[in-house]
Design brief:
By secondary structure, the chain is of the alpha+beta class. It folds into 2 domains: 122 residues, NADH Oxidase (3-Layer(aba) Sandwich), CATH 3.40.109; 66 residues, no CATH class. It contains 9 helices and 4 strands. Strands 1-2-4-3 form a 4-stranded antiparallel β-sheet, with helices on both faces. The longest helix is centred in the C-terminal third of the chain and has 25 residues. The protein is globular and about 60 Å long.
Length: 255
């Protein structure tokens, strides 16, 4: 299968006309984690637009292994606030969104990708792409009963890796959780930047009782809370202090 190394002929081109580094820098600088909000309402159209923009985030194999629960019911919101330890970032927020990483979403979105390929009229879908979703995706992400398939894959990939570059996972249910959380976190950042661009603040929270979160939103089996994001208008005391970042040299390395 040449999908990883060969450039496919798809007969499609898309030019990007966006080029505004100054505005993006302002947006990144403006996004702060807000701990206290005013009682100003967040319009429904803003919520829906920002949630839709979050779904444009890059993700692994376009399998979109995420779900976002917009908490609208007062009773559920109270439960989420309590699950978040009643911290001000949750308690004073106008809106709450629970981001869920779903390791098994590929079982739904994989077939949807194949269906989309069948319906494509303007793009010639390479056979390698079709085979990727038909054969490789189920093989890569299915860990089998009690993880036995994953264990077998671990052995095969180890020996294959002795001879050629080889992805070493996912080969366990924990690997699948990490896989899903990475893509979901990308969408969460996009969601927070979207709200900031619309004039609203956010705070990503991971200090919560995961079991209570799952019960409150009736999370489907296999789902994993990634974070709870609060949304609202920043109160005067909403930001607890200036942003603290350490020297770039601690994190950025040239090799």
């Amino acid at each position: 299968m040449d999908i990883f190394s060969k450039i496919p002929e798809v007969g499609y081109a898309e030019q990007s006309t966006y080029n505004n580094p100054q505005e993006f820098e302002k947006l990144c600088e403006a996004r702060r984690s807000c701990r206290v909000y005013t009682d100003e309402h967040v319009p429904e159209e803003v919520m829906r637009k920002c949630l839709s923009l979050a779904l444009l985030a890059p993700n692994s194999s376009n399998l979109q292994c995420w779900q976002f629960y917009w908490v609208r019911t007062p009773d559920v919101k109270n439960k989420i606030v309590k699950a978040c330890l009643s911290q001000p970032a949750a308690r004073t927020a106008q809106e709450l969104v629970v981001a869920v990483a779903h390791p098994q979403m590929w079982r739904t979105t994989g077939p949807l990708m194949l269906k989309t390929f069948e319906e494509q009229k303007d793009v010639e879908v390479p056979r390698s792409a079709i085979m990727y979703y038909k054969k490789l995706v189920p093989l890569a992400y299915n860990q089998g009963f009690l993880g036995l398939l994953g264990l077998g894959k671990r052995v095969v990939l180890f020996f294959r890796g002795l001879k050629k570059p080889t992805p070493r996972g996912p080969v366990s249910k924990n690997d699948m959780k990490v896989w899903a959380h990475k893509s979901t976190a990308l969408a969460c950042q996009q969601l927070m930047l979207s709200f900031r661009a619309h004039g609203y603040d956010t705070c990503p929270m991971e200090g919560y009782d995961e079991t209570l979160i799952k019960k409150a939103i009736k999370m489907p089996k296999g789902g994993e809370p990634c974070m709870v994001i609060s949304v609202g208008k920043r109160a005067e005391n909403g930001i607890y202090g200036p942003r603290i970042r350490f020297d770039d040299s601690l994190f950025i390395h040239e090799v």
